[in-house]
Specification:
By secondary structure, the protein is mainly α. The protein has one domain: Up-down Bundle (Ferritin). The chain has 5 helices and no strands. It is elongated, with a radius of gyration of 16 Å. The termini are far apart.
Length: 154
């Protein structure tokens, strides 16, 4: 494979993207879980908001996995892989709506940090497609975290 990025950099980028994929899939699953199980006075608002968020992430995980493949590496695709690679804790039980929101804010902020941690090697390698993907993911996750945070203001 000769796409202008050396093997070591492609491996390092793919590893970073694998962590991003694991965080994204874990947050997708958590958001879907909360969509199913949210209750309380904000039920309709949160139910619809969570649905829009997990649908967006369902498409995003495919983009991240395909970028890993384009770099010549295999994308992780099992719960065991994701559990090993993610920085986002699973939800235990069914939290109250405000706790769901807080956990999702934390998850989106974690995804932002994970995405940012990959930029150094991406920039060094001149990997513009991955930089563009990371920038797009940051825009989505920063905006989503802001919108969720706004629900917690009194």
């Amino acid at each position: 494979m000769d796409i202008g990025i050396n093997e070591q950099d492609r491996q390092d980028i793919a590893h970073g993207l694998s962590r991003l994929l694991a965080d994204s899939y874990t947050l997708y699953l958590k958001t879907h879980n909360f969509h199913w199980n949210v209750t309380g006075p904000m039920f309709n608002t949160l139910h619809l908001m969570f649905e829009a968020q997990y649908n967006e992430m369902a498409l995003a995980v495919d983009l991240v996995a395909e970028r890993i493949r384009a770099l010549g590496h295999y994308a992780p695709g099992s719960y065991a892989d994701y559990a090993r690679l993610t920085s986002i804790p699973e939800a235990s039980g069914v939290p109250k709506a405000d706790d769901m929101i807080r956990q999702l804010v934390d998850g989106h902020e974690t995804l932002c940090r994970t995405a940012r941690s990959i930029f150094a090697v991406v920039e060094k390698a001149g990997d513009e497609p991955t930089a563009d993907l990371l920038t797009q993911r940051l825009q989505v996750h920063e905006k989503t975290a802001w919108m969720l945070r706004s629900l917690l203001e009194k």
